[in-house]
Amino acid sequence: MVIKVFVATSSGSVAIRKKQQEVVGFLEANKIDFKELDIAGDEDNRKWMRENVPGEKKPQNGIPLPPQIFNEEQYCGDFDSFFSAKEENIIYSFLGLAPPPGSKGTEKAEESGENEAQKEDNEDAGNLAESQEKNEEEAETATEETKEVTEEGAEGDGEEEEAEQGEEEEPGEEEDDS
């Protein structure tokens, strides 16, 4: 089963290009086999895509815009549905694919409603929170140490200034006495 992603390589719309890049980039990063089919340079691809997007999924003007995603002949969805599936960590079911063999127990994930990516995200979030707390504590400690050093330095400077003033006054006093 090959995922087909219909794109327009010469799209004038920045938004469409970004959406296409996000879909293609995600599939590449996750090593999901797919074929990019250009609708701008190939009339047959454009015609096939437009005919095979279900009626209820077509926009009001009736012309679906890229990217459109299919698993062989079966329609998966457009960018918005892809994005939602990605956010909900159900991308493999969205694409009509079995999760990769490396992922632990898909049955367990379905039972618990949480897959490995979600668990890793939760762990990452926990680690991030811990590291943020640690950084904040270190920043507070550094700030306190800086205050102490500054106060000590200010006290030391004050003593030095008093000593200097005392030295300056002594020669002046001698001159007055003469």
Automatic annotation (TrEMBL):
GO terms for molecular function: SH3 domain binding. The keyword Membrane does not apply. One of its GO terms (cellular component) is cytoplasm. Residues 105-120 have a biased composition (Basic and acidic residues). The keyword Cell division does not apply. Pfam families: SH3BGR (PF04908). Belongs to the SH3BGR family. This is SH3 domain binding glutamate rich protein.
